[in-house]
Amino acid sequence: MAERILIVEDDESISELIAYNLKQAGYETLVAFNGETGLQLALTEEPHLVLLDIMLPGMDGWEVCQRIRETNDVPILFLTAKDAEVDRVLGLELGADDYVTKPFSPRELMARVKAILRRAGRVQESDYIQIGPVTIDLRSHEVTLEGKALNLTPMEYQLLRILAMNPGQTFGREELLSQVWGENFFGDQRTVDVHISHLREKLGPVSNLIQTVRGFGYKLRE
Fold first, then answer.
1. Residue 50 pLDDT exceeds 60
2. CB neighbours (10 Å) of residue 46?
3. Which DSSP category does 201 fall into?
4. What CATH number was assigned to the domain covering residues 128-220?
5. What's the whole-model pTM score?
């Protein structure tokens, strides 16, 4: 079951951006535009994480956090323009698990979300491989680059997975053929080169993660 994340944010453009990136990473999302609704959803919908703005109309984020903590230990990540140390300390003292100041990058936010869920026991280390901005979800077989899904073929995914699980280890073309296509595959070893080329194109700005070892095969840069 996908983790359910509640976004409590009164700025619709920001909430839409956050929801889009979370959905691309495979999470379910709930959205509230004020504190009262956010509190109600936090207590009734059983989210696995609450992303909570502080400057909300009506009940502010401080009070929402306090009210949640009276009965619930769901992880809370504050999203706010308040970056003074006293505000960060207050948020943590009220029971927040982390704090991100605006403006923030989707990449940073996704890293914080995954870290909190991992600490809360919602994400197993072995379920994900993180290579810089690239995340491989071993459960769903999905790959994202800075939170955006990459449309990999099954063969491209398997090649990336094998290399990513063994960073720095060089794999010969024949070995990759055997692991991806099976020991009974008798095709041309250049098939690997074609799929690696397509994979690098899709990785775009981080295509250099996959290095060619001349005369032998490929490895993932450590």
1. yes
2. 11
3. H
4. 1.10.10.10
5. 0.55
